[in-house]
């Protein structure tokens, strides 16, 4: 029942927003009582926190599997992380949108718990870029922290506009993003000088 409550919570929070969804809306959808809801969650906010944590913990676990794969170089690992984020749009789009849109409705104690996991994902990505630079696979002089934020911004924003069944397929989007990240868009990199 807890899983069903979470699934309906995700569906309704994504469709109507956290503030516009009541506990009554959730239990009515399932045909259960509020008592059932409060048996599993102390509040609607706790449900939102659990949705956030399950989503980010899943991403971190997938990321760590990629990072620990010694058969891949740094570029391939970066490709796999971007690919994982884009492919999750098909299966995790509502959770991803809730994750980025509804965190503002959580109290500080819950936000801190989620920020720890978000920061871990970001730092893992940044360490990958730093290692790629150290080993000569990525060019020197880059700001790994800024590059990491850019990569995560590009991929995370895709949850709002990318449609996996549309004209551009998941693999094509990953290739476009990786080409942009690794090679930019100019033919001659001497065009822009700061």
Q: Could you explain the architecture of this structure?
A:
The chain has 194 residues and is an all-alpha fold. Helices cover 73% and strands 0% of the residues. It has eight helices and no strands. The chain is elongated.
Please outline the helices and strands.
Blueprint: H1 2-16, H2 23-30, H3 34-40, H4 44-67, H5 74-101, H6 108-134, H7 144-161, H8 170-183
Helix pairs in contact: 1-2, 1-4, 1-5, 4-5, 4-6, 5-6, 5-7, 5-8, 6-7
Features:
single chain, 194 residues, mainly alpha, Arc Repressor Mutant, subunit A, Tetracycline Repressor, domain 2, 2 domains, 8 helices
Number of strands: 0
Order of helices and strands: HHHHHHHH
Q: Unreliable segments (pLDDT under 50, ≥5 consecutive)?
A: none
Give the N-terminus to C-terminus distance in angstroms: 58 Å
What percentage of amino acids are in beta strands? under 5%
Helical amount among residues, as a percent range? over 70%
> If classified by CATH, what would the architecture of the largest domain be?
Orthogonal Bundle
Give a brief rundown of this model.
The chain has about 190 residues and is an all-alpha fold. It has eight helices and no strands.
